[in-house]
Amino acid sequence: MKQEYFVVVLAHSLRGRLRRVQIPHTAVYAVILLAILGVFSTFGFVASYARMAWKVANYNALKSEADSLRARYQNLQKVVKETNVQMASLQIYAKEVSVAFGITQKLQGPSDISHEGKMVPSFAESLQEYNYLVNADKLAISNRRSRHFGGIQSPPSEWLVEGRLMDGLARCTDPFSGEGAFHKGVDITAPTGTSVRTTADGVVVQAEMVSGGYGRLIIVDHGNGIQTYYAHLSKILVRVGQELRRSEVIGLVGTSGRTTAPHLHYEVRVGGAPRNPYRYLANANVFRQAAPKDIPFQ
Description:
By secondary structure, the protein is of the alpha+beta class. The chain folds into two domains: 1-100; 122-298, Glucose Permease (Domain IIA) (Distorted Sandwich). The protein contains three helices and 14 strands. The chain has helices at residues 25-101, 123-149, 278-281, and strands at 5-11, 18-24, 164-167, 170-173, 180-183, 186-189, 195-197, 202-210, 215-223, 226-236, 243-244, 249-253, 263-270, 273-275. Strands 3, 6, 7, 8, 9, 10, 11, 12, 13 and 14 form a ten-stranded antiparallel beta sheet that branches. A two-stranded antiparallel ribbon has the order 1-2. A two-stranded antiparallel ribbon has the order 4-5. Strand 9 (215-223) and strand 10 (226-236) form a beta hairpin. The longest helix has 77 residues, at 25-101. It is rod-shaped and about 150 Å long. It starts with a strand and ends in a 17-residue tail after the last helix.
């Protein structure tokens, strides 16, 4: 019995000859089957590769997120450690302040702040205590000054800056507003940067930039209610609470505040009231006054 086959006729385009090719059915079916298997195999390979690529991408994303979370966790641990150190320092400082000033009141309430509970003292009370501590600190400075100097030993009579005395304690005209004003001290002209010296022993009670026209101001307490003011400075060389000796350099002449030229504004106050500085400067070792101007001292 002959095997069934397909006949394929091939014709030559130039010679015109025909050629018959016999292809068995089994061969054709085998080729078709192999083609189908190849398609399925290729599809399976592509699908498997796609799944593998998707898993790799997810793994990389999860790994990156894990690294980010690990870095954030480490940063949080570092912040917590620093916060704990600061809390410990604040607790130690609070105990020292309590011992120093005799404060016995303390915060009361539940240990867990998430629960409701009254915190004592309140914010306003804490602010009052802070103001009390500031005032107590100033009082301590004043008491230390009184114990150290035993009251003022000599009046502020030292010449304070190398310059010329121009304006004194009197009614004058404000160069900025043009209106009348009361000059509470004396002005001594000197180049910017000239050293300014304290006129007597004392303690610095204020050294900062202030408003109101003084500019950079230093106030020295000499005891018995006597204070001296040094204003319009270009630089402050002392700090609050510092003890000073006569002729010690405390700052440099400048133009800070309401000024038209470099000079030092100097005041002497007794009990908060301005006094005529001329009475003290007249006894200084060096005294220079502007000759052409008669200064109306009281």
